[in-house]
Amino acid sequence: MLKMFTHTVSMIILVLKSIGLAGCASAESANIGNGTEHTAQQSQHSDNDTLADQHSSAEEANETVTQDTAALETAQNTTIKVVVKAQGGDEELVLIQGANVFVKSGDGQEFSAKTNSKGVAVLLVIPRGKIKVQVTASGFKTFGERYELVEKEESIEIELEIRDLPIVD
Q1: In angstroms, rounded to a whole number, what is the distance separating the alpha carbons of residues 23 and 97?
Q2: For the chain, how many structural domains are there in total?
Q3: Which of 9, 55, 84, 129 could be joined to 106 by an S-S link, Cβ 3.0–4.6 Å?
Q4: Which of 24, 28, 30 is nearest to 56 (CA)?
Q5: Residue 11 above 70 pLDDT?
Q6: Tens digits of per-residue pLDDT, 18-68?
Q7: How far does Cα 49 stand from its chain's mean position?
Q8: CA-to-CA distance for 108 and 130, rounded, in angstroms?
Q9: Is 16 a member of any domain?
Q10: 56 shares a domain with 29
Q11: Which stretches of the chain are assigned E, i.e. beta strand?
């Protein structure tokens, strides 16, 4: 029984060493190894101290994760939803599928996406501030415009113009 108890305490000490709390348990280990009687009350006291230290370490780790998450949430990034339309017959706007949407941020980062069947392209993690948006699509004039992103999520609607076709005689 004492051998099993000694093994268990040795394992606890290894765990404590791995989390940097070995100093408080080393004296206990030395007493057990020398055959000194180790009472259940001493063991309980040591276990309570260890649990308190582990709880404190867990709280510190949780606080660090919370701070890191808060930093990510306050990062100055925006999600942009770009809707691309064009004049169709009878003055009706139609959604353009397959348009290429390019975004260049103020710090020079470049992002791109294609519009889906609903004419929508979503670009994630665009730095807030001034951006340039360029849209190209077959049969339409290239669109280019500057915008300023201030919100966490923004929507931009773009209307493309039909490209002039050359007149052939």
Answers
A1: 66
A2: 2
A3: 129
A4: 24
A5: no
A6: 555 444 444 444 444 444 444 444 445 455 555 555 555 555 555 555 555
A7: 36
A8: 10
A9: yes
A10: yes
A11: 77-87, 93-95, 100-105, 110-114, 120-127, 129-136, 143-149, 153-160
55 vs 67: CA distance, rounded Å: 18
Residues 6+ apart with CB under 8 A from 102: 110, 111, 112, 133, 134, 135, 136
What size, in residues, is the chain?
Answer: 169
> What is the tens place of the pLDDT at every residue in 67-77?
554 445 446 78
Position 123 in a domain: yes
**Are 62 and 89 found together in one domain?**
no
The token duo for 117 is 């069947």
CB 84 within 8 A of CB 155: no
| 154's tokens | 């923004």
Strand ranges for 16-115 from DSSP E:
77-87, 93-95, 100-105, 110-114
Q: Are strands 100-105 and 110-114 parallel, antiparallel or unpaired?
A: antiparallel
DSSP 162: B
Q: Which domain holds residue 65?
A: 2-72
Residue 98 · residue 115 · CB < 8 Å: yes
